[in-house]
Design a protein that fits this description.
The chain has six helices and no strands. By secondary structure, the protein is mostly helical. The chain has one domain. The radius of gyration is 18 Å and the shape is globular.
Amino acid sequence: MGIILAPLAVGAQWAFRELAAYFYPNYPVITSTWFFLWAAFIEESVKFLAIKFIVLHDPEFDEPVDAMVYMISAGLGFAAIENILVLFQTLPRGTEDTLSVWLLRFVGATFLHAVSSAIVGYFLALAWFYNRHSSKLIWLGLFAATIFHFVFNIILLSSDGKPEGFYYSTIFLISVAIIVSALFTKLKNQQAKTSGE
């Protein structure tokens, strides 16, 4: 579903560009921070919708930690189709450029989508424990994942293609991944404690 729903994100991003270009014809939409914030929010929302439509009401979804696993799966599917689309866009620039862009995306974008989806998954799992606040927790998860995704994109954008951007973004990704991993462990412990009671 992460792959199937990806065109929704492409359509929403295209609509944002077209509307911004119509109302603000001289504004550089594609490089604006507003576009990157919108794009991050749309992509995180689409990945969540993939899980909402398929998994949330399925009897197989019977453990809170499953939320993180399912969200990561949706994120990896989304990253796969996004990487393929970027690959086709860069083909006219030559084999060397295409391979270098694809290699960077394979590491950066794939890892980014897995980690940001895990953030949403964590808050979705918390909603399992705190059912009365489930809507707030899900929105909070989408907000946290959007900010994380946005900051990653801004680091790359501000580096202007210099190697430092790759290093800083990688350090940022790994740091957040470590935090998410610790949250996953905490969630498993909380689930084990609840199951034991």
